[in-house]
Design a protein that fits this description.
By secondary structure, this protein is α/β, with parallel strands linked by helices. It is built from seven helices and nine strands.
Length: 209
């Protein structure tokens, strides 16, 4: 099947790389957008011959104008699905409503615990014993949309923010491409806040093979 995915990223782009390297998801990525000109993610896209665009907020008079420009770009590129991969801006209604139930985000905690931009630090400071990774649909609230996939990860006694981040990233790089494929293939059924995976037996076989 064919699909056109845009990946939005603000940083080095390690989750983008995991998506690019996935044999199913990688060919669907048609556009990478960053809000920082010096981010590493656009370079990873260009190496693969994928269009990469930087939309720096400072170039727009308001947050709403930035969102409108982003929404227009996604429409111009005929984008069908949006994946947030370390994108550190909150998407406004102009984008979220245009892609309702077609935007995914990956977050380094077991939501609803520790939302926001410092989830790993917050988990350590709270003294949590377990954290993990969540892939969820994006709505108009921060780290709030229905959960698609989650995986727990123990916090070890000697963990620092960097060491825990590195172990969570390993989970993210495995979980996020899987969730993206489920979304694009139409294998997610939404019932209020519950997300059901269709053909779960097939999905389980895919995971263990």
């Amino acid at each position: 099947m064919d699909a056109r995915i845009a990946v939005l990223a603000s940083g080095a782009g390690t989750n983008l790389q995991a998506l690019l390297d996935d044999p199913h998801v990688g060919p669907w990525i048609a556009l990478v957008v960053s809000d920082k000109a010096n981010a590493g993610a656009p370079g990873r896209a260009r190496v693969r011959g994928i269009k990469a665009v930087s939309l720096e907020p400072a170039h727009y008079p308001t947050r709403q104008e930035h969102d409108r420009h982003l929404a227009a770009l996604l429409e111009e590129e005929a984008i069908e699905f949006v994946l947030l991969a370390g994108y550190m801006r909150i998407l406004g209604p102009a984008v979220v409503r245009a892609f309702q139930d077609r935007i995914l985000n990956v977050h380094p905690s077991l939501l609803p615990a520790f939302p926001g931009g410092h989830a790993i630090r917050d988990a350590l400071e709270w003294g949590a014993k377990v954290t993990g990774c969540t892939v969820h649909l994006v709505d108009e609230e921060v780290d709030h949309g229905p959960i698609v996939l989650q995986e727990p990860l123990p916090i070890l006694p000697g963990d620092t923010e960097d060491s825990l981040h590195g172990r969570i990233q390993q989970v993210e790089h495995r979980l996020y491409p899987r969730a993206a494929r489920l979304l694009v293939e139409g294998r997610l059924k939404f019932e209020d806040r519950r997300v059901h995976i269709l053909d779960e037996a097939t999905e389980f076989e895919d995971v263990i093979t």
